[in-house]
């Protein structure tokens, strides 16, 4: 056992375990490309947008919960795509999963989660009723 650990064979075994957990070499490389890391974890839930949430207590505290964004998002993912209830679980505000929390408020006036569209063509632009201070010159006809 000591010789195997000394030669790093335990790390090699862990690598093969991670690759098989992520679906093989091709799927592991794709996941590494999208997320910059490969992890093994237990799937604890999925939100209605297709994001999957994982946990592995073997990793350091603060790095042992993570989200894998839905495949249809590809490389265009950001933190605003995580709903508030899952955000709370990811950031240790609660240890209860959203679907197992009986005290979670659910009122009909609560708005549905929407991601932040800033920087896109769908960004919010307020309508202005004030005329501009400087207007472009239009030549006479």
Number of contiguous helices: 4
Strand content: 5-15%
Shape estimate: elongated
Structural class label: alpha+beta
How much helical structure, as a percent, in the residues? 25-40%
Topology as H/E string? HHHEEEH
Which whole number gives the mean pLDDT? Answer: 89
- Rounded to the nearest angstrom, the distance between the terminal CA atoms is 92 Å
SS elements, strand count? 3
For the largest sheet, list the strands in their spatial order: 1-2-3
Subunit structure: Complex I is composed of 45 different subunits.
Main location: mitochondrion
Membrane topology: Peripheral membrane protein
InterPro entries: NDUFA12 (IPR007763)
Tell me what you see in this structure:
The chain contains four helices and three strands. The model has no long low-confidence stretch (mean pLDDT 89). The chain has a three-stranded antiparallel beta sheet with strand order 1-2-3, covered by helices on one side. The termini are far apart. The radius of gyration is 23 Å and the shape is elongated. By secondary structure, the protein is of the alpha+beta class. This is NADH dehydrogenase [ubiquinone] 1 alpha subcomplex subunit 12. It holds the Pfam family NDUFA12. Keywords: Electron transport, Membrane, Mitochondrion, Mitochondrion inner membrane, Respiratory chain, Transport. It is a peripheral membrane protein.
Short synopsis of the structure:
This protein is of the alpha+beta class. Helix content is 26%, strand content 9%. It has four helices and three strands.
Itemize the secondary structure elements and their pairings.
Blueprint: H1 2-6, H2 9-21, H3 25-35, E1 42-46, E2 52-55, E3 65-68, H4 84-90
Antiparallel strand pairs: 1-2, 2-3
